[in-house]
Amino acid sequence: MISQRIISSPQPLIDPSEDYRALPRVSNSDLTRLKEEHLGYWSVPSARFIPEKAKVFGRAFHQHLLEPETIGTVLEQLLPDMTPDANVLAPKQTEQLNTLMRTIRQDAFCRRYLRLSERERVVLFTDPTTGIACKARLDMVYTSPKRRNALIIDVKTTSARTQAQFLESCYTYDYDRQAAFYLDSLRYADTPGGRPGEWATTRQFRFVFVGVMKQRPHRLFAVDATSIPNFIEYGRKKYRFWLRKWREEQQDVAPLATSAWSLSA
């Protein structure tokens, strides 16, 4: 049974993501920010159409689902400006989160893989085409006992009201790039001493997006990204394009830093 606990007095919010963010590697989120910088913030759909409060709510949702032991006072600390009177409406936000948790946990597919999968798995890898060190943090990854199959599941909150709308959002918000980036993180996972990677013998990789409606009736949608023709291939082209842009920027910065040092010496 899902806890209906109401968040109470402020406590320190444990944020295990800090160590991940500190890793000097490129993430898919870094590529989103790079795209926003190059194309202009308001030209990027995720920046135009997803309000900051919705992004914060999405982070709170993921923490409730995947890291319930670190919840603490997540709503008070992550959603302090949702309403003028947070003490009155924080329980309302908590109930919304609990409703979404119930919706997911009552689904047989989600319940199975929440139980069997590694959650918030961090994977370090090197992109073979650019040589850039990358990182990914996967919502859920399940590897079969003999490691012949691997399944990545990424859970999204969505305003879509139909399966078709959710599928459309997968294109609008660069989910193809995310899916390709995450799948390749397993294929090219870094290993010490050059030993074969953890998924080196895996024959089949699948990636499934699960969307849960934020509004009633809180339906679930599922998109098997690996079954859509050219979806992963196009996403791979996109993330490698932005990795090359990232490398170009790093190369441009290095001579400037050297020149500044020479002038000050």
UniProtKB/TrEMBL annotation:
This is Putative exodeoxyribonuclease 8 PDDEXK-like domain-containing protein. Residues 50-240 form the Putative exodeoxyribonuclease 8 PDDEXK-like domain.
